[in-house]
Design goal:
single chain, alpha/beta, Collagenase (Catalytic Domain), five-stranded mixed sheet, 6 helices, 5 strands, globular, endonuclease, YbeY_CS, EC 3.1.-.-, YbeY, hydrolase
Length: 167
């Protein structure tokens, strides 16, 4: 189950955008071998609110594009399919039979700015940020070079297979 909550009024949230976000999340989960019913929340906000959240949660007072709040614990360097391949979840990980993966908080305002800055479509930027965040929910990270290379490769593979390019 994917919950999408629009808490901003600067960028129009169309049905096409919502459908594409849901589709890319489902596709990324399938590609990452998540074979259990899941729950993911996506919250669209603006730059001011993501700056405040970034300060509260990470002690970084600046606008960012997306924040991820994973609910599962991973050891350093491990990802979902390495840890949970046999669906060995704790009861606390499940809500009414669904695995709670976590929350994605995405600034649509920043996504729009970045799409213009990088010269590709707004939809491509939102899809990229969504895949990036889903991978965070599944244990991927980019704090050290080795992990960053692994995560970037996976992002591009999913987007390419989903037929989303930089154009």
């Amino acid at each position: 189950m994917i919950y999408i909550d629009n808490r901003q009024d600067k960028i129009e949230v169309t049905n096409k955008l919502v459908e594409k976000v849901e589709e890319i999340i489902n596709y990324a989960l399938k590609e990452e071998e998540v074979h259990i019913s899941t729950e993911v929340s996506v919250i669209f906000i603006d730059n001011e609110n993501i700056r405040e959240l970034n300060k509260e949660q990470r002690n970084i007072e600046r606008v960012t594009d997306v924040l991820s709040f994973p609910m599962l614990d991973y050891s350093e360097g491990q990802v979902y399919k390495e840890v949970y391949e046999h669906n060995n979840f704790h009861d606390a990980d499940l809500h009414e039979g669904q695995l709670i993966l976590g929350d994605i908080v995405l600034s649509l305002e920043r996504a729009k700015e970045q799409s213009e800055e990088y010269g590709h479509s707004f939809m491509r930027e939102v899809c990229y940020l969504t895949v990036h965040s889903v991978l965070h929910l599944l244990g991927y990270d980019h704090m050290i070079d080795e992990d960053k290379i692994r995560m970037r490769k996976r992002e591009e593979e999913i987007l390419e297979n989903f037929n989303i390019t930089r154009n």
